[in-house]
Amino acid sequence: MSLQSLVFCSDEKILRVLRRVLSDLEIHVEHCGDMETSIRKLTRQRFEAVIVDCTEEHAAGRILRSARSAPGNRRAIAVAIFDGATSLSSAFELGAHFVLYKPISTERAKASFRAARALMKRERRRNTRVSVEIPVMLSVDGASEQQTMTTDVSEGGMALKLAGRPKVAGAIAIDFTLPGTETRVRSKAEIAWQGPARQTGIRFVDMSPETRAEFKAWLSQQSSDLEKDDPPVGCKLTDLSLGGCYLEMSSPFPIRTLIVLSMRVGRLHVQAEGVVRVMHPELGMGVEFTQKTMQQRERVEHFIKALMKSEGLLPDLLVEPEGLEDESCPASHSALRGDVEDPLVDLFHHKAALSAEAFQNELRKQRGPAAQPAETAV
Known about the structure:
Blueprint: E1 3-8, H1 12-24, E2 27-32, H2 35-44, E3 49-53, H3 57-69, E4 77-82, H4 88-93, E5 98-101, H5 106-127, E6 130-131, E7 135-140, E8 146-153, E9 157-161, E10 172-177, E11 184-194, E12 199-205, H6 209-222, E13 233-234, E14 236-240, E15 244-248, E16 257-265, E17 268-280, E18 284-289, H7 294-308, E19 316-324, H8 343-350, H9 356-371
Parallel strand pairs: 1-2, 1-3, 3-4, 4-5
Antiparallel strand pairs: 6-8, 7-8, 7-10, 8-9, 9-12, 10-11, 11-12, 13-19, 14-15, 15-18, 16-17, 16-19, 17-18
Helix pairs in contact: 1-5, 2-3
């Protein structure tokens, strides 16, 4: 099933560029020229992307808000088209994930929509549910385990049939084996929803990258009709700390994107999970690592040490999106840093609103004169 996009635009020149680019990327275009029709379609159809020309900012804002309130489209990727005078913060306030500035060229649009497509695919796969019954051992607040069964599973969680309703605030642990494999999945979880007939939906929390990769592979086998994810993309590492990094790339992912970063230097290969905290279109993004275990932190520490000993050997970096951070359950930053200062992560949190040029100046100040030659690239 092809990816679906709703396009609100009355500019024929822009529309021609969008149709050409989206067609090349195998994204179907549903064009709407007026606000009311767009809003009506959002209530009746599912779209992976909502693309709005913000010439009429009021209408564009209503369409984007309607997408967020429609159950089937609240996680659609929003792309806003502005003239060059509009600030990036204004675009994000409207709910945009990606921004295209006029005049729109085919190449610039392609670069942005490649990143958008990767995220669209991940969001669709992440939320696709597979109907399957799997026995699960469940414990709440460390109490004795009880066995239950799933009714369906997805990358982000599962629906369970429970004898009673667990405490919403209780700490949950799950343990199960993927059918047809020897892969044992252990993870913390939390209540996502509670429905009729004692059905309860849970969301996975702190699942290890290795387990998540095996789980994703198993789900792909069960739902073979889904498109494959886009391959990871290369990027340039300019700043790195235990808590985060800044990556230069022409098509950065939007703020709140959960990513997996694969870093290789020499024989050492490390994977780190993170969330995008700062995004500068066509330039790069700041990523905060979501380190919740000592093992995750140690991986990054080993990579930093190996990079310092590499005598100028350039690291290979690949990044891929895992989906958008859930606004109701944001990915927490490292719980392991304690009182240890991390100027790079502090910059992400406190100066994200700076212009791209001003932010880059702040990065250079942090590196200092002695750090200038240490910048790394792929």
